Amino acid sequence: MIHRNSLIASVFLSALLVSCVSSPPERPDDICKIFKEKKSWYKAAMKTEKRWKLPPYVLMAFFHQESSFQAKIRPEREKLLGFIPWFRPSSSVGYSQALKNTWEDYQDETGNSRAKRTDFADSADFAGWYASKGFYQGFSPTDARSLYLAYHEGYGGFKKKTYRKKQWLINVADRVQARSTMYQKQYWGCAKELKKKRLFFF
């Protein structure tokens, strides 16, 4: 009986932890509220900034656009004959919506072979790694618009300006920049408080 109760408690606790980790934040439009609610996300964002120089507000603007902070989200399946579930349009998964091949490149280059696209910390590190390739080419760490266009088109595509034929993508990149700017202003107002409380978080 004791063993059975312990097993039930363990299963319940595991389910609760998974729910806490994968659920989107309650206030996705406020980066301060996000980091106060998701303390492990704040830690991951700080680690990414330190390692790759990608500001947390740019990172979070990317993830808001790509996945709405949903850990296991995938592109919807296409419909065969209008109603039969078919293949997905791409292999993207998780917070960063990283493609399988690009994720494997990240794993090979960083040695982070156990990284998962459904893990926030791994996704944040991936985004920082990808953005850093642009920094070497002269991209500004705060230029969320250009970084997002390159994130979507690849740096080769960005150089060829392939995005110019995709007005919808330009509009999305503008929204990412606007959100990044909003997050940046919010972050300036709570960065000291978050840093001060970090010692108590971990």
UniProtKB/TrEMBL annotation:
Residues 11-190 form the Transglycosylase SLT domain. InterPro entries: Lysozyme-like_dom_sf (IPR023346), SLT_4 (IPR045795). This is Transglycosylase.
